[in-house]
Amino acid sequence: MNFRRALGVLALAAGALSVSAFASGCQSEGEGARIQGQVHLTLLHTSDIHSRLFPYNLQLGQVDASLGLGEALSIANVGGAARISHIIGRERARASRALHLDGGDCFQGAPIFNFYSGEAEIRALGAMGVDAMIVANHEFDRGALNLGIQLQNHASFPVLAANYQFEDPSQPGASPLGSVIQPFTVFDVQGLRVAVLGMGNLSSLTSIFDAPNRLGITPLSTTQVAQFYIDLLRPTVDLIVVVTHLGLENDQEMIETTTGIDVVLGGHNHIVLQPPKRVRDCSAYCDENGENCSIRTTSGDPGNYISRPCKPRDVILAHSGAFAKYVGRLDLVLSNNKDDFLRKDDYDPLNGFEVIASDYKLFPVNEQVPADPIVGSALEPYAQGLDALANLDLLVGYALDGSRRFSTSGGDSALGNMIATAEWLRLGIQNDFSL
Q1: Per the CB 3.0–4.6 Å rule, which of 30, 47, 77, 320 could disulfide with 191?
Q2: Are 251 and 230 in contact (CB under 8 A)?
Q3: What's 255's DSSP letter?
Q4: What burial letters (b/e) apply to 239-259, b meaning 16+ CB within 10 Å?
Q5: Distance between CA 166 and CA 180 in Å, rounded?
Q6: 159 and 183 Cβ atoms separated by less than 8 Å
Q7: Which 3 state secondary structure label does DSSP give 317?
Q8: Cα 235-43-96 angle, rounded to 5 deg
Q9: Exposure string for 294-318, b = 16+ CB within 10 A, e = fewer
């Protein structure tokens, strides 16, 4: 299927979603009333939780110590969905308008995923009241069918991915993802209409369409899809937030080759941007003086570009870490009044509300954070089940000096060598070769 036809299919899907998507967000007394002037919005961001639903012990490095998680080289008890939920609830209470958006990869990384295949992760996000999440590469670790089943059975919130074209779920053997994942959703937050667009991972997904391990997904061009939905949504929304699992480099490229995005909340690299970056959109194709900029759209024919003039503007790009160690809070001051801008010519009414000021805070998820009892209760059956299924407290080995995943000298990974030796010596496995 060529790109033009793929976008045609997406346009039909978007049209069908446009009415329901407005109804799926936060409802308020101000719904339907277009607001004017300065307003505040708080975006709470998590990403790459990787099944760290229960607190765990971690030896802290210099980076985590500098970000407030604890003292360097100490063993700290961090993470846990109940602690994350306490922070989310507390910060919602401190904000006039707030949305919690998750950047995917909530699956994989702890025994609870091995035994329950993602059910606990989806239910935990629902219990903490996430407003929307995107799907990322590790959501497919048990296959597309498993992901579809978990979302159908347990997701009480919008699940997003605009840059995937899914196979027809009505076909025999197909996954139900095409019926449960949508490209965007729109929230009416006390009169402020916020569009949230999801961009799933492309670089780390394997077997996207090749049989027999295919996921039934056709990947679509990041830039082209993003611009398509920006243009679709701009006339009816005030702000466009893109939640991605593309990685930092691809986030920047997406911003620079599009126009109209206000905020990008990224993931996949397991990094924290403190403070967030400011990336100029519409800046990839300018003249040698940095002027006369344009964006390029294509009809699907290689090299057949259509240029469209645009004016560069700053887009906020934030990443908030991984492994349930942090919650990011991005506070925005927005305005649709050109008198609030230092240079009045910078404001384009087509873009609705623009960011005139922002502030970012990072909240460590450590022992000082209380646990939300609601999320704790939701996870208790899984904790009891794990105790019955496996003795996770059994000590099978001990490394006096630790066993790090990465070598500090650039040589072999100590942890990798241990795993390779275990596979080589374990009776019944005894690998001769592994990749």
Answers
A1: 30
A2: no
A3: H
A4: bbbbbbbbbbebbbbbbbbbb
A5: 10
A6: no
A7: strand
A8: 90
A9: bbebeeeeeeeeeeeebebbbbbbb
DSSP, residue by residue, 83-149: HHHHHHHHHHHT-SSEEEEE-S--SSSSHHHHHHTTHHHHHHHHHTT-SEEE--GGGGTT-HHHHHH
Give the C-alpha separation, 174 to 215, whole Å. 9
**Is residue 27 over pLDDT 90?**
no
| Alpha helix segments (H runs only) across 188-307 | 222-233, 248-256
What's the full length of the chain, in residues?
435
pLDDT of res. 14: 47
Q: List CB contacts of 246: < 8 A, sequence separation 6 or more.
A: 199, 201, 202, 203, 222, 254, 266, 268
Report the alpha-carbon distance of residue 163 to residue 220 in Å, rounded.
5
Question: What does the mean pLDDT of the chain come to?
Answer: 88
* Both structure tokens of 84: 């994350």
Euclidean distance between CA atoms 159 and 180, whole angstroms: 7
Q: What are phi and psi of 170, to 5 degrees?
A: -80, -10
pLDDT at 431 over 90: no
DSSP for 322-345, written as a single string: STT-EEEEEEEEEE--GGGSSSGG
Confidence of residue 21 (pLDDT cuts 50, 70, 90): very low
353 close to 39: Cβ distance less than 8 angstroms = yes
Closest-CA residue to 182 (of 7, 1, 5, 10): 10
Pairing between strand 132-134 and 159-160? parallel
